[in-house]
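Minutes, project check-in
Item: structure for the 289-residue chain
Input as provided by the requester:
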Amino acid sequence: MMKEIIVNKKYHEKKLNKVILEELPNVNYPTFCKLLRKKDIKVNGKRINKDISIYENDRIEVYLPKELEDIQRNLDIVYEDENILVINKPVNIEVTGKNSLTEIIHKQYTNCEFKPQPCHRIDRNTTGLVIFAKNEEALEILLKKFKEHEIEKHYLALVYGIPNKKEKRLEAYLFKDNKKSQVYISDTFKKGYQKIITKYTVLEKRKDNTALLDVEIETGRTHQIRAHLAHIGYPIIGDGKYGKNEINKQFGKKYQMLCSYKLKFHFQSESGILTYLKEKEIKLKNINM
């Protein structure tokens, strides 16, 4: 899909990245760099591979990859009522921030007094269910329910290796290195580490030495599932950060095979206008892993 931008006065003598990042939803800086490398950007009819200065009335053509085209065309709404919105988030997009799923939703809900707000997050390259609140009261309730672990979050994970036990509840400690955008797992407590609890159930054992797991997290730490499973020797296939490159290449996967596929509103306390959701389960079907 090609997107055209005619540069207006406010971008005169600005850098190309500023124009594209502000004018095109879903294009973040890494994607912009990729577009440059592939020469998928034209300025005044000429393909470019550098972040050049732009001038008023310049004509920019951006050829977006199919994955971004699909995100722009459709929001995959799994469930919606007057209080909540549940979206099936695709790969290669953040939940919050610039050019995020939240920004796309805000552009499609422009006439609402309260623009839907996410109640939790999943990683950029993890797919699946994300809940958005459609009013302030629902947001407050859902944030509290997540904090008190009254909403069950289940993931499907395709891992390399087959666990010996069908079910297991794992406890460990996680340290987040913000500078490296990476986390580390320890079986024993260390200063700066936070406790994590990850449960898994083996759903399917495959002949290619892989296993499909249902994973439930009692604590929602950054990269928890990916790092914790890798720590015990079962890396998620396609995970470029905590997995193994040779395995990812063997299976031809560029993104982690991890999907937030089931949410259950297991309310134990007062839930106000969301009482009707108690024990409701929202689940994705036909997931290809």
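Outcome recorded: Residues 136-147 form the longest helix (12 residues).
No further action items on this chain.
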